[in-house]
Specification:
Layout: H1 2-21, H2 30-53, E1 57-60, E2 63-65, H3 67-81
Antiparallel strand pairs: 1-2
């Protein structure tokens, strides 16, 4: 059980990294590009699916919050708290 919670915590940190670094993918050094590619391969399909269910929320002129990332974070936190 503790290993499962640890893996979920790693997923949450990975989601944070993906959300912060995703738009700068072409600037990542080769040393870290492999790690980012793994993170991207995990989250991109999940987030693309969630984007079909939850649209970005407009908070200003040409400024949107990606609600799919928030929903995934909430789901991971619910799972980690109930396990």
């Amino acid at each position: 059980m503790i290993i499962f919670k640890f893996l979920l915590a790693v997923l949450i940190v990975s989601l944070f990294i993906y959300s912060k670094v995703g738009s700068f993918e072409n600037q990542i050094s080769e040393k870290y590009l492999k790690i980012f590619t793994i993170i991207k391969s995990i989250f991109k399909p999940v987030l693309n699916f969630l984007k079909t269910l939850f649209k970005p929320y407009k908070i200003g002129v040409n400024l949107f919050i990606d609600t799919s990332q928030i929903v995934l974070l909430i789901l991971l936190l619910i799972i980690i708290l109930n396990s």
